Predict the 3D structure of the following.
Amino acid sequence: MATESMRSFRESRSVCTSKQEEEATKLMESTDEIKKRLAAKEVEVREAKSTLDTKVTMIGNIMHESVTTR
């Protein structure tokens, strides 16, 4: 009787472990996907900043009307 009880306990633990492994795998895959998306967004941000910096350099200084020019 004790042996059956121990076997039953062991089997229930292995099912639990299997489910935990499945969950862990899903989480790792999700994390990998997030890392890839983040890397793509970082590239997009760098490109946008580069474009912005280029356009900003074309804008001259805008003087306030109180500043006199010669």
Observations:
- Residues 1-54 form one domain.
- The two ends are 105 Å apart (CA to CA).
- Residues 2-58 form the longest helix (57 residues).
- Residues 20 and 26 are 10 Å apart (CA to CA).
